[in-house]
Amino acid sequence: MLKLSNISYDIPDREGILKDINMEIGSGEMVVVTGPNGGGKTSLIRAIAGVIRPSLGEIWLDDTDLTELGITERANAGVAYSFQNPVRFKGFRVRDLIRIAAKRRLNDQEICQVLSRVGLCARSYIDREVDAGLSGGELKRIEIATVLMRKVKLYLFDEPEAGIDLWSFGHLVEIFSELRRESDATIIIISHQERIINLADRLAVLADGCLTHFGTRDEILPHLHIRPFSFSCQTDGAE
Amino acid sequence: MDNLPTTPVDLKKVKNILDSLPISATTREILAGLDCHIPDPERTAYNIRENSRCAGRHSTAEIQIVPKTDGKSGVDVYVAAGTVDQSVYIPACISQSGVDEDVYNDFHVGAGARVKIIAGCGIHTHSNEKSRHSGIHNFYLEAGARVIYVEKHLGGGVGRHNVQIDPITHCELAEGSYLEMDTVQIGGVDDSRRLTTGTVGAGASLVVKESLLTELEQRTTTDFNITLAGADSSVELASRSVAKDDSYQEYTSIIVGDNACKGHSACDAILVGRGRVDATPTLRANHPDAQLIHEAAIGKIAGDQIIKLQTLGLTEAEAEQKIIDGFLRTL
C-alpha cells in the first residue's frame, strides 16, 4: 500500500505546487491521475519517486517510510518510475539501458522479449543508440520497457501515451490491462486518455495543486465529462 | 627493436600466441588492456614492441611486416592486394621509466584488401621519471581497400606518473577506399598531442571515432586536418571527450573540401568537476558542391540522465560513471 499524508510542495518562486495531498492506494490497485495542465500531477509522481522532496508530509510504501529516502533508495525499495519525456543517452545502446534496468547481463533473446512487450521489433533495436536515431515514440516505448521489466511494489507512469502512435497506444492499453490483472503492485498512471482512464480502479483529479476528486470511476467520470477543466481547490476534495 | 626471439613457436598449438612470447607480466597486462589477443596466427600478423625492442614478430603469407631500413625505429606493413579477413597487431608496451621514442609504422594496403589493424600504446611504469611514446603511422590505401584501425592508449603503474603519448597519423586514401579509425585514450596519460591528417580521394571515405578521457591535471590536444580531394569523397569525424577534475582538452579540426564532397565533424564533450575543453572547428569549402558540417556540444552531464539511472537503482556516482562509459563507447 502507498500512503501519502499531507504532502505539500513549494519552491521559492511558487507556493502551493502541491497542497496537502492525502491518498491511500492499495496493493494491486490502479489509480489514474488526471486533471488540467499545471495542476501538479507530474510533481506528485516525482515526489513519490524522490526526484523532488515535499516541503511537508510523509510517504509510506507498505511499512517503509520513503519520505527521507533518495531516488536510488526508493528505486531499491520497490518504486519504478516512467518519465513523461524519455531521456536520451549518447553512446548508450538499447541493450545497455535494458541491462542496467535488469541489473544483470541479459542475452539477446531476453532483451528481445523485453522489447517485444512494448511492441518494438526487437532485434533491430538492440544495438541502436538511445539517442537522436530513435523517434520520440520509440524512446517512449523503451522507457516504458525499462520500467515494466522491473518487479516492484509501485509503478509510476507519467503520461505513457504521450508521443505514442495510435497503433502502439492500443498495445499500451493492453499492457496496462495485463499489468493490472497480473501484478499485485500499486500502479499510478498520469493520463488524459479515456481508454486508460477506463482501466482504473479509482481516479484522482489534481488541479491547482489540490486533490479535488478521488474515487471510483463511476463517482468521478461524470465530473470529468461535464466540466473537465473547471476543477479548483474550492471543489470538494476526495469524494 | 629488431631482436627477434630465436625459439621457434608452433603457432597452431597456442590459443593466444602472445602467451608464448618471452615478455614480462607487465607487458602481458598492457597487451590485455590494449585488447591484444591473437588466437589465429595463420590469419594474423603481429609486431609486439616491449621497451623499444621487438618482443615478437610474425607475418602471414599475405601480410608482411618488415623492419625499417632507413635508420628509423618501426616497421613497414605490406598487405597484399585482395587480402581479406586478416588482422595486424602492432602494440607498443612500455614498462620501464625513461623511455623516449618515436616509432614509425607505415601501412601499405593493396587494392581491394580488407583488414583490421589493432595498434596502441600502453605505458605502465613504477617511478616518477617521464616516459614518452610517439607512434607515427602512415596509411596508404590503394583503390577499394577497406581498413578498420583500432588504437588504444593506456597509462598506469605505481608512483606519480609522467606519461606522454603523442600519436601522429597520416592517411592517403585512393579511389573507393575506406578507412575507419577507432581511437581510445581513457585516462592515465598525463600529456598527449594527437594529430591526424589525411587526403581522401575520389569516392573514398574516412571515418574517425575518437574517445578521450582526461582527469587530474592531464592535458590533451587533438588536431584533425583532412582534405577531401576527390569527387564524392567523405569524412566523418566524431570526437567524444570527458574532461574531469582539473584536466584540459583542446579540439581543433579543419576539413577542406576541394571537390564535390561531404564532410562532417562532431565534437561532444562532457565536463566533470573543473575540467575544461576548447573546441575550434574550421570548415573550408573550395568547391561549390562541397557539403561541410560541424557540430559541437560541451556541457555537464544532464541531470535527467543521472535521475533516470537512479530510478533504475544506481547511485549517483554509479550513474555518472555509466553515462561517461556509454558516452565514450566503453560500456
Strand content of chain A: 25-35%
Percent helix of chain A, as a range, is: 25-40%
Uncertain ranges of chain A: none
What CATH first level of chain A would be assigned?
Answer: Alpha Beta
Name the helicity range of chain B.
under 10%
| Tally of domains of chain B | 1
* Ends apart, CA distance between termini of chain A: 20 Å
Supply the CATH architecture of chain A: 3-Layer(aba) Sandwich
Overall, the morphology of chain B is globular
Question: Your description of this structure?
Answer:
The complex is a heterodimer of chains A (239) and B (331). Chain A has 239 residues and is of the alpha/beta class. Chain A has nine helices and ten strands. The mean pLDDT of chain A is 90. With 331 residues, chain B is mainly beta. The two termini of chain B are 35 Å apart. The interface between A and B is medium-sized, with 24 and 23 residues.
Topology:
The complex is a heterodimer of chains A (239) and B (331).
Chain A: E1 2-11, E2 14-25, E3 30-34, H1 41-49, E4 56-61, E5 64-65, H2 71-76, E6 79-82, H3 94-102, H4 108-117, H5 122-125, H6 136-148, E7 154-158, H7 166-182, E8 186-190, H8 194-197, E9 202-207, E10 210-216, H9 217-226
Parallel strand pairs in A: 3-8, 3-9, 6-7, 7-8
Antiparallel strand pairs in A: 1-2, 1-4, 4-5, 9-10
Helix pairs in contact in A: 3-6
Chain B: H1 25-33, E1 44-50, E2 53-58, E3 63-67, E4 74-79, E5 84-94, E6 100-109, E7 114-125, E8 131-141, E9 146-157, E10 163-165, E11 168-173, E12 178-186, E13 191-200, E14 205-214, E15 219-228, E16 233-243, E17 248-257, E18 261-271, E19 276-285, E20 290-299, H2 303-311, H3 316-327
Parallel strand pairs in B: 1-5, 4-6, 5-7, 6-8, 7-9, 8-10, 8-11, 9-12, 11-13, 12-14, 13-15, 14-16, 15-17, 16-18, 17-19, 18-20
Antiparallel strand pairs in B: 1-2, 3-4
Helix pairs in contact in B: 2-3
